[in-house]
Amino acid sequence: MFQLAAWSLPFVAILLCIAVLPLLPATASWWAGNSRKLAVSAALAALVCGFYLARGHGFRTGPDWDGLGAMLSRSVLGDYIPFIVLLSSLFTISGGLRLTGDLPAHPATNTAMLFLGAVLASLIGTTGASMVLIRPLLQVNSERRHVKHTVVFFIFLVSNIGGALLPLGDPPLFLGYLQGVPFFWTLRLWLPWLTTVALLLTVYWFLDRRERAREDPQSLLQDETTLVPFRLRGKVNLILLLGVVLAVALLVPGRRIPGTALQVPAHLREAVELALCAASIAFTPMRVRRTNHFSFAPMAEVACLFLGIFITMQVPIELLRLAGPALGTTRPIHFFWASGALSSFLDNAPTYVVFFEAARTLPAGPGVPVLHLLGGGQIQVRLLEALALGSVFMGANTYIGNGPNFLVKSIAEERGVRMPSFFGYMAYSGLILVPVFILVTVLFFR
Predict the structure, then answer these.
(1) Residue 381 and residue 387: Cα distance in Å, rounded?
(2) pTM over cut 0.85
(3) Exposed e or buried b for every residue in 164-199, given b needs 16+ CB within 10 A?
C-alpha cells in the first residue's frame, strides 16, 4: 500500500504542473510550449513505466514486461487513444463550422444563446460548442462595453455544465463510457442539469439587464441598429458531427454492430471518427477555418499532457481499488463535493476516473440501486450520478478546471474583452456557482 502511495506522486506532479506552472511568472512562458509539456509528461510517464517494469522483484528475475505491457495496453490502447481521437474529431469538425451574424444584444438574446450552447455542449462536446458559439456571442455583443460577465457565464454553461447529458459532452463522462457506463445512461441526469442551467440563466438574465442599463446611449443605439442575418458556413460538418455521435453510440468494441451478427473490432470506432475528421478537412473551405482562427495547437497540448496523465494515474487507481472503502467517501454528497473540489483546480477527467474507481470498491447494501457496467463489475447508481455531476459542473469553478475555459478566455481577450483575473474569475464562481451547487446538493444529494 505504501509503495503504491509513493508511486502516485508522478500523477500528483503532472496535475500540479498543469495547475501551477501557467500561473507563476517564472515558469509561465517556459510551460507555454507544447514540446516542454510533452517532455514533462513523458518523463513522469517513464518513471511509472519503470515502476511497473521492476515491481515485485526489482529486476532480480528480469524485467516484468508482461506487467508493463498490460498497464500500457489498458492505459494507452484502451483509454488514451479513444479519448484523444474523440476529442480531436469533435475539435476538428466543429472548427469547420462558422456561425456569423449580429442581433441586438438584449438580455433575452444572450440568454437564448447561452441556453443553445448548453444544449449543444452535450451533443458536440464542451470544446466543440465553445468553439462554434463564442465568436457569434462576442459579435452580437460587440457594440456593448460591459461584456465580461457574459463570457464568464458562457464558460459556466457552455464550456462546462451543459456537457453533462452525454459521454460526448465532457471528457469525464467519455472516460466513464470507456469504463463501461452505457452511452445513454447520463441522460438520467437531465433534471439536475436542467435545474442548474435554469438557475444560472435566471441569474444571468437579471445581471445582464443591470449591465445593459449601464451602457451609454450611443452604444445602445448602435447595438439596436446593427442587424446582420445569421449565416452558417461549413454545414457539411453538421452531418459529420452526427456521424461521430453515431460511431460512439453504436460501435462499441466487443459488442455486435446493431442489426448484424458482426462483432465490432477493436478501434473500428476510432477509425470511423478519424475518417470523419479527414472528410471535414477535405470538404470544408480553408477560408472558414482561417476566419475561425483554427489551429491544432490546443489539441496538441491536450494530447501531450494526457499521455502522461493516463499512464501515471494507473498507480492511484490501483491504490483506490485497495483502499477505497477506507477513504470515508461513501455517500453521494461526498462524491459530489470531493470530485467537484478537485475538478475545480485539477483536470476533471482524471479526477473522475480516480473517484470512479473508489466508488466501484464500495459494496451496495440491500435495496441500493446498482449499475452493471458493460465490461463487468458494478457501481452504485447514486454515487455515479453525484460523481458525474460534481466532475462536470465544478470544472467551471476556475479557469483551469476544464480545457475550454482558458480557450474561451483567450478568444474573448483577443476580441478586446477585459476578462477577470484568475482570482477575479473565482470571485464570480464563488458568489454564483457555489450557492447553486449547494442548492443542487440539497435537492438531489441529501
Answers:
(1) 10
(2) no
(3) bbbbbbbbbbbbbbbbbbbbebbeebeebbeebbeb
pLDDT digits (tens, 9 = 90+) for 368-404: 899 999 878 899 999 999 999 999 999 999 887 777 8
**How many residues does the structure list for the chain?**
446
Picking from 191, 134, 199, 133, the residue whose alpha carbon sits closest to that of residue 164 is: 191
Q: Using CA atoms, how far apart are residues 54 and 57, in angstroms rounded to an integer?
A: 6
Sign of CA dihedral 74, 252, 245, 389: negative
pLDDT of 58-78, one tens digit each?
Answer: 555 667 778 888 888 888 888
H-assigned helices in 293-380: 297-312, 314-323, 332-345, 348-360
Residue 176 φ/ψ region, left for φ over 0, alpha for ψ in the -120 to 50 degree band, beta for the rest: alpha
231 by Cβ neighbours in 10 Å (0-12 / 13-18 / 19+) ranks as: exposed
**Alpha-carbon distance 248 to 90, whole Å?**
12
Question: 139 and 102 in contact (C-beta within 8 Å)?
Answer: yes
CA angle 134, 171, 364 (to 5 degrees): 140
